[in-house]
Amino acid sequence: MSTIRWIEGQPRSARWHSESGLPLPRRVVVADDRMRASDAYRFACEGTGLLWRGDFHNARQLLRAMDRRVGRTAPGAADSPAETFRLHRRFRAHRARVLGKLLVLLEEDYRLALRRAPDVGRACAEAYGTSQGPVAVALTELLGVVGARQWRERGVYVPALGARIHPHYGVFAPTRDEYVELVARAPLPADVQVAFDLGTGTGVLAAVLARRGIGRVVATDVSARARACALDNVRRLGLDRTVRVTGPELYPEGRAGLVVCNPPWIPARPASDLDLGVYDAGGGMLRGFLDGLAGRLEPGGEGWLVLSDLGERLGLRSRGELLNAVDAAGLRVAGRLDTHPRHPRVRDTADPLHAVRAAEVTSLWRLAAL
């Protein structure tokens, strides 16, 4: 693990950790309540880390002031959705790098030794594991860790389940429930005894399948965090005798009458593991699902691909490419159910990608072997 070094009366150092893959600051200086936002922004743009030693709430105010300065350079709409998407993704990466230069030091047992600082020990232990001594992190990351702890405690109500799902840090939360409703209402193939849920995440789709009466559901995920989250949720729901969580392989052993996969919807490279629920580099998970499906289906079984057309509308993948991949995998389309998003960004007309988001369609593709 990388190390940051700074002078605070004497030379000091601490481990550097970034879940989002932020680079190590070029140098680190100590900052406190006397730091002006204009100076902090200048330091951050130069690549200098600011190790905060002042009041915790003042640090949050400084972060907001820096964010306002970053926001002045946000791009508008470009000539095409693909170029707009590229520019805004590049801007978000720039914003993350600049704001990520405001640092805090987590002492032993994740103690935050700042005035008016909250107790972040439990949130950090859930996100990072057992404390290994002092570690420096970006304040933006720490706020995300604390926010994730609140999500985990409160949970996300899923109408299709009539229950709450509790996402863990780093696991994509099912806040867009329209795709869950597709899985809840699609007609099941006849006499399904076993179902696979590939890339289960929080386990929400595995839980829906179990609630629909499928006697054995095997849920897989490449991420150890996601597997722990899914297991936690199926236990909370009393479904752990029906749902088995495994990984990191995409497909478990054996065959199933139903195989469900909700891969990341945007075929672009993730910036870090935290992006794996959104970005699928080169459509790798999608291809893995399609290429392996025919050999894992029981006779008369179906594969359900839950996929938004957002990547198509952004010009990152065509409908023809998707259908050609289905055909090349020895599959046919047996049917399709569509739905439209209901999340707040659909109504945000100030979003340069508003037209694309408003037109988005999420589909459940019912696939069968030829």
From TrEMBL:
GO biological process, one term: methylation
Sequence ranges assigned to domain Methyltransferase small in this UniProt record: 165-266
Highest taxon listed in the record's lineage: Bacteria
Cross-referenced Gene3D superfamilies: Vaccinia Virus protein VP39
UniProt xrefs under InterPro entries: DNA_methylase_N6_adenine_CS, SAM-dependent_MTases_sf, Small_mtfrase_dom
Keywords from the UniProt entry: Methyltransferase, Transferase
Pfam name, any one: MTS
GO molecular function, one term: N-methyltransferase activity
Record protein name field: Class I SAM-dependent methyltransferase
PROSITE patterns: N6_MTASE
